[in-house]
Amino acid sequence: LGTVNVGAVAELEDIAGRLAELTGQRDDLERSINALRSTIARLNRLSRTRFKETFESVNAIFKKTFPKLFSGGTASLTLSDEENLLESGVEIFAQPPGKRVDNLSALSGGEQALTAVSLIFSLFLHKPSPFCVLDEVDAPLDDANIGRFANMVGEMAARSQFIIITHNKRTMECCDRLYGVTMNEPGVSKIVSVDIERAAASV
After folding, report:
1. Measuring CA to CA, how many Å separate 4 from each of 1, 9, 15, 138?
2. The pLDDT value given to residue 82
3. Rg of the chain on CA atoms, in Å
4. What pLDDT is attached to residue 185?
5. Torsion angle of C-alpha atoms 141, 147, 152, 154, degrees rounded to 10
6. Contacts of 11 (CB under 8 A, 6+ apart)
7. 10 Å Cβ neighbour count for 42?
8. Low-confidence stretches of the chain (pLDDT beneath 50)
């Protein structure tokens, strides 16, 4: 029979205990993996639902906002892959007055800027926040477009506070208060503020 291992019983108990411990850890990992997969699937379903609802709402608002800023025309948003919402891109199709429907790359710089502003306003109108910061978004716009941009900001300002960084005088005219930074001495900045409403009332 050969040499008898008198410690085999104790060794078997140790190995059986280790096997039970590893089996328990494996089961815990499998349960965790299944729970994570279930959570990911639930979040993906929720994300798809919310994305679709938000996309449809923003698209509807965009179709109304674009004609306001362009004094006519049509625009819409489309998905590049409607079957895979979470991986799909969003394409913008715009038709300013007197032009054919095309994607954003075919428009002029000013038209692209105004279309982008229209989309930003549509997102903002979908879920307004207490304030909005616009940094020189009016820089590429001509006087006519700036007038419509200022009117749109005036309408939205009834619900939210807008902070606009601009060098355009027509945009400044639609503001309630102005803050300017000047440099009377080299290297020394000075802030100047003007309350438009109070100044107009005093005149």
Report:
1. 8, 11, 19, 92
2. 84
3. 31
4. 81
5. 130
6. 5
7. 10
8. none
Q: Are strands 161-165 and 131-135 parallel, antiparallel or unpaired?
A: parallel
**Residue 133 identity (one-letter amino acid):** V
Q: What is the pLDDT of residue 197?
A: 65
Q: How far is CA 61 from CA 82, 84, 119, 139, in A?
A: 20, 23, 9, 24
Which residue from 175, 180, 178 is spatially nearest to 192, judged by alpha carbons? 180
Please write down the HEC assignment for all residues of the chain. CCCCCCCHHHHHHHHHHHHHHHHHHHHHHHHHHHHHHHHHHHHHHHHHHHHHHHHHHHHHHHHHHHHHHHCCCEEEEEECCCCCCCCCCEEEEEECCCCCCEEHHHCCHHHHHHHHHHHHHHHHHHCCCCEEEEECCCCCCCHHHHHHHHHHHHHHCCCCEEEEECCCHHHHHCCCEEEEEEEEECCEEEEEEEEHHHHHHHC
The phi, psi pair for 76, rounded to 5°, reads: -160, 165
Q: Helix crossing, 109-126 with 8-70: angle to 10°?
A: 120
Q: Using an 8 Å Cβ cutoff, are 162 and 132 in contact?
A: yes
pTM for this structure? 0.73
